[in-house]
Amino acid sequence: MTKIWNESGFVNDDPWVVETEETKAGSNEKAILGLDAFLEQAATGALGLGVLIAPADDVTRLAPHLGQIALVALAFPAFNDGRAFSHASLLRSRLGFQGEVRAVGDVLIDQIPLMLRCGIDSFAVTNATAIKRLSEARLPGIANHYQPTAKPSTDAKSYSWRRVS
């Protein structure tokens, strides 16, 4: 069972569906398309689209279409494949994407704080341990960081002495 979580808690009635050959978005749902299918739709001028970025995809191909995107889903096919962390960072820092960025796939509780720091807003969570810990508001984390991130800290002292001016 997949649950969508963001920093406000679990989301009910999320309309987004990652389309595959077996799964298509229904009438009350919104499709998350693969990169090539998204680019075809974006060329027609469609707005409010969702796009799935696989680890090997070039996220910079989205640059001319950022205004048409409502959601970017970043695929984490396995816990040891961290390329989507780089995709999230590129989307936020270089491309300036302000919309929703969602982690899908193998989302584990230990990775969520790092995903948040990279600019990921929401998570499609299937891992039972992660769902339990998130429902209990037990998010792991580290109080001090050496580097700035896509998501600014509310406490200026939470960064290393190297980054405090």
TrEMBL record:
Residues 145-165 are annotated as: Disordered. It comes from the Bacteria. Residues 146-157 have a biased composition (Polar residues). Pfam families: DUF934 (PF06073). This is Oxidoreductase.
